[in-house]
Amino acid sequence: MELKGLRDDVYRRPLATALDRLGIGPGWTCVDVGAGGGDVSVALAEVVGRTGRVYAVDSDPAARDEVAEAAAAHAQVLAVTQAGEDLRLPEQVDLAFCRFLLLHVLDPAAVLARMATVTRPGGWVVAQEPVTSAGRVDGHPLSMPSARHPDVGALLPALVRDAGLDVVDAWAEAPAGAGPGPVAEYLAALTGVDPGDDAIVLPPLVTVVARTREPAAGGPGPARRLGAPSH
Questions:
Q1: What pTM does this model have?
Q2: Which of 7-21, 37-51, 122-136, 213-227 has the lowest mean pLDDT?
Q3: Dist. CA 210–CA 157, nearest whole Å
Q4: 4-133+149-174+205-211: CATH topology
């Protein structure tokens, strides 16, 4: 899947792989938790089309304006100022997504539990979080003192499972490079330090693709086919 708005995003490939796994398409309703400037929200909007809807949720009120600017051509993107631990939406979604969020929040497990709650039965939850200390610059480990849980990616499959979700797939992927280029530019933006010509392995991003559980046989609610939206 090509995510046009993420061409310059060095971590775009694991996101595209995850969305391919889901079969996401027109008509889906999604929430991007910790949306920041809205790049992923806009990319999702391009996939779900005008019949779909994307909630871009972030705890920073300034992010709402950034999302509004980025999504000017996508009326189906709705910016919401809300902390992940307090996540509430006017409807259940087909996909709840977060990336580089859980390393910063107070309680990653609480955020994942809220994401599960806002996702319809049989819907999808996708989380992507780093193992910061596994990144390398010139062979030396990276650190991120500002993050509350810099290596939360190493625990992510278990956290997702403990949120009552069924893990369908999980993997880790890390962009690498040496010298000037997108990887070096990303690291400089992340740390404020220019790595020069040093070899770089960015923190591996652990992706977990999970599903909420369908009602038990004979219980309320119709069963839906794999990957189908609720519309």
A1: 0.87
A2: 213-227
A3: 9
A4: Rossmann fold (3.40.50)
